[in-house]
Fold this protein.
Amino acid sequence: MATKLDASSCRAEAWIWLALFVSIAVPDLQSQTAKPAAKQEPDVLIFTDDEKLIGHLVRATGASVTFKSDMAGEITAEWSKIKELRTRQPFAVVEKNVKLHRQEDTSRVPQGTIVVSGDKIDVNAGPAHTPTAVPVANAAYVIDEATFEKAVLHNPGIFEAWNGAVTAGASLVEATQTSQTFTGSASFIRAVPVENWMDARNRTTLDLSASYGKLTQPNTPTLRTAIYHAGGERDEYFTPRLYAFGQLAYDHNFSQGLDLQQAYGGGVGWTVIKNPHRTLDLKTSLSYVDQQFQESSHNQNLFGSTFAEGYTEKFFHGIVFTEQLAVTPAWNNTRAYSAAGIAGIAIPLYKRLSFSLNTIDTFLNNPPPGFKKNSFQLTTGLAYTLH
């Protein structure tokens, strides 16, 4: 009898374990073999002529809408040509009078799926919320919700968010005379935040340039030119247009007898003009300049001020013109003033490559005897844009 009870107990225990295994394994197997979720419905764009596009809204500004169609690819159209727009993904609509900081509450920025009809944008945050209506004329940016949240919450690291361009050019002549000329420059800028719809917090710029040339001829002394520059600036914004900055610059100019000039300064700047097509900055600072010449008797330490301006203009087809001018009078030696001017234009050629034409003019009022006060460079080359 005991043997039969033990056998019955074993069979019952086996059935219990089998039932437990089935209750765990079968649902898991079903979840693995279940059909994938249905693909989310696409966004719809309808033009005023009733042409309809299916795809996804990329972004929008106060002037235009960028839409990626499954058939037509990415297109950009003005708001006036759009009759209706419906999205399935949530977007944030930033109005023209709204500027955000990273730590600021974003509750006043409507977020949700959007329906554009006529001259208004209805933002639907969900069944429990009343849709928010924003006039199309008052919408500065329409950004997908993921990008919006990342921009507000993420603080880029020191190696992130850098933009800039690298330019290089060269010439070589081999004849009775042998001539080599090499020019190059690199400029980098890191503006935080990157997004235009947020208030500027800080900006870092770095610039490097070099021009080297050598001319040799039998029975004639070798002639050479060597001009090098390295500089940097850090801006910290008080308001969207007013900022404090610190800067430094190192210059060598063999053509002016200048072995090394070190300049350090700090001051305030004001962005007078800032829009998608042009910017104009005015700056003033107190400066310390250490000049070391080939003739050491002309070395001197100067204390003065720097007055500067910088202008950028963006033309059609991506053509960009830049110009900078700085004048530095020295207060402890009024004859030892200096100035520098830069102007350049970049014309896109293919993707990130462009043709670059630049002029650099530097003026020293106190070079050693035998050297000209003015040094002018005209350089051309190919430029590669990082972003």
Remarks:
- The chain has two domains: 43-153, 162-385.
